[in-house]
Design goal:
Elements: H1 13-23, E1 27-29, E2 36-38, H2 40-59, E3 63-64, E4 70-72, H3 73-76, H4 80-86, E5 91-96, E6 99-107, H5 112-122, E7 131-140, E8 154-164, H6 167-187, E9 194-197, E10 209-216, E11 222-232, H7 234-238, E12 242-244, E13 250-252, E14 254-261, H8 263-272, E15 289-293, H9 298-314, E16 320-322, H10 330-339, E17 344-348, H11 350-355, E18 357-362, E19 371-375, H12 379-404, E20 406-407, H13 412-418, E21 423-428, H14 432-442, E22 445-450, E23 458-459, E24 466-467, E25 469-474
Parallel strand pairs: 3-7, 15-16, 15-17, 20-21
Antiparallel strand pairs: 1-2, 4-6, 5-6, 7-8, 8-14, 9-10, 9-22, 10-11, 11-14, 12-13, 17-18, 18-19, 21-25, 22-25, 23-24
Amino acid sequence: MTEDKLPTQSENFAEWYNQLVLKAELADYAPVRGCMVVRPYGWALWENMTAALDRRFKATGHVNAAFPLLIPMSFFEKEKTHVQGFSPELAVVTIGGGEKLEEPLVIRPTSETIIGTMYSKWIKSYRDLPVLINQWGSVVRWEMRTKLFLRTLEFYWQEGHTAHATPEEGKEETLRMLEVYADFAINDGAIPVIKGRKSQSEKFAGADNSYSIEAMMGDTKALQSGTSHDLGQNFAKAFDIQYLDKNNLLQYVWTTSWGLSTRFIGAVIMTHGDNQGLILPPKLAPYQIVIIPIYKNEEEKSLVMPVVSKVVQELQNFRIKVDNREEVTPGFKYNDWEMRGVPLRIEIGPRDVQKGTLAFARRDIPGKAGKTFVQQTQLEAQVAEALQTIQASLFERALAFRRAHTFDPQDYTELKSVLEKGWAFSWWCGDAECEAKVKDETKATTRCIPLEQEPGRGTCIVCGKPATEKVIFGRAY
């Protein structure tokens, strides 16, 4: 870490984000334009996310597998909507072993095509269904404008791909996984996401319907944080995925796909971070606790370090880092770990040893207001309670922020005005022309049509025609 201060969020939110990712050693720029190197601290955060998701996937009956990175170009041409949607972003290999390939190979931007091909081999009977497979890996999409974690040429993610006997089962799976993502975001990420359906123009290329969880960042922009797609029979017909049903009739399966990526790291940074740096939710933080020993000489050190060892032993069920660097001051360490977002700091000095106390400093409450002194008894229970309080506090604060920056404009003029400072939750007739007008004139898009909204009717905020659903308009990353 350098001692250079971060820009404040109000001065330049984008630069605050860029510098924080680098200073906190989450990631760095790779030699290839638009790619990133995820550093150990960032990867530890991602590992905690993958563990939380993988646990949920397996609890819902899914298993993991691995499919090839290279996909024949002809596979993409089988599903016309899919290839049209992805063709500008494809990275293509044309030479292998020093010779021109007979058929170009695409570095996977997503795996529906290769997995669909394999499913057509594996699925023959209704007894083979459902197929519930997830893959962890990376994909490549040739983006023009990139930003660490949020949009890079190569990024890490999971992609689930399932096959079902009926359309009802396919839709049920799509919504089940949307719920899994929302549960993860809310309960582990402390991010109050909104679940909703994408408009036809914003849905995944090749899907019947797409659903997403949308989160509001600290600059009031939206971030699509996870998606789940009902693919209908589009890929089944393109890749001839058929099965014999119980009546011995040949049927096409119904498929889904769903994914969440390292972009969620960006969501955590921009939802919870402040001018001092990261604030990481305890359930995901690489270190939940950092212990700072404080001493001026060897005599004080001999008093403090045995207590540090005892505390570490008592708190072994938590993720702990002891900062025993002697070349920097305690004050430097405080600032360093505040910038890195560790939820709870425990300070132990000679006076604490004498009094039988410890200093707790909560990252979500900066300065003296967040510091308390606790007894060195029942320490595990006190720490667990503090971390639980921090986790809940982060969620409530993010929810309050989103509510304060979500508006219900009464006409189109007001809509354009509120989109300068947050989201609009407005009636929309569903017409793509109205959607395009908002995008052209405000740079805001339809983020999602929330699944949870009060029934009723209204008039479209853009054209005044009758509308039966409300949509979230917002500028997005």
